[in-house]
Amino acid sequence: MYFHSITDSPACAADDVGLARLKADLASANSTPTLSYVVPDRCHDGNPTPCNPGAPAGMGPADAFMRSVVPGILASKAYHEGGLLVVTVDQAPSGGEFGDSSSCCGQPRFPNLPPSSSGLSPRGGGTVGALLISRWLKSGTTSQEPFNHFSLLRSIEDLFKLPHLGYAGLTGVKAFEPSMFTARPTG
């Protein structure tokens, strides 16, 4: 998000906007972007370390963020016409009892990451889940197939019939299983 090729472009001010604009964007299907990437701020991202001294941390603020954002998305006309909501996190805890920096699915070793203080490999972000919500998904579908963040990118690229970018184009990276999706909306 903060590469100069993005931040220095004229489109950045129009397209990289704050959360305050979400409600207006969702007001009609025509004003809703085809793809939106919503990220909570440091105070609501579920991190166990407080964003400011004395501020609440962990899953409480993350849950509050989700409760304030998700209902509006799910109620929007654009979502009902063909939306897909993906809820995931960027990584598992890097240290402590549940520390995990494992990887899967042909994920490359990232050359710009220093060794972690926990002694775990900088190859991955550990095991996390993803929740996909859409009427275009087969109801109750679950997958135990391992995917990584590049799998999510590759799946989005496939849905939009776009070429694969960077690590999403590696041969070991799989998109989400087509069998998860339906040709017709459910419900």
Q: Could you explain the architecture of this structure?
A:
- This protein has 187 residues and is mostly helical.
- It has 2 domains: 1-83, no CATH class; 84-187, no CATH class.
- 25% of the residues lie in helices and 4% in strands.
- The protein has helices spanning 4-7, 11-15, 22-25, 59-75, 77-82, 149-159; strands spanning 85-88, 130-133.
- It has a two-stranded antiparallel ribbon with strand order 1-2.
- The longest helix has 17 residues, at 59-75.
- The radius of gyration is 18 Å and the shape is globular.
- The two termini are 35 Å apart.
- The mean pLDDT is 81.
Give me a quick take on this structure.
The chain has 187 residues and is mainly alpha-helical. It contains six helices and two strands.
Key words describing this protein structure:
187 residues; mainly alpha; 2 domains; two-stranded antiparallel sheet; 6 helices; 25% helix; globular
Q: Look at the structure and give the mean pLDDT.
A: 81
Number of helices: 6
Task: State the strand order across the main sheet.
Answer: 1-2
Helix-strand pattern? HHHHHEEH
- Output the structural class: mainly alpha
Described by strand count, sense and barrel closure, the largest sheet is: 2 strands, antiparallel
Spatial extent as radius of gyration: 18 Å
Question: Total strand count, please?
Answer: 2
Strand content: under 5%
Report how far the terminal alpha carbons are from each other: 35 Å
Q: Which range best describes the helical content: under 10%, 10-25%, 25-40%, 40-55%, 55-70% or over 70%?
A: 25-40%
Unreliable stretches covering 5 or more consecutive residues: none
How many domains make up the 3D coordinates?
2
**Any idea what the shape is?**
globular
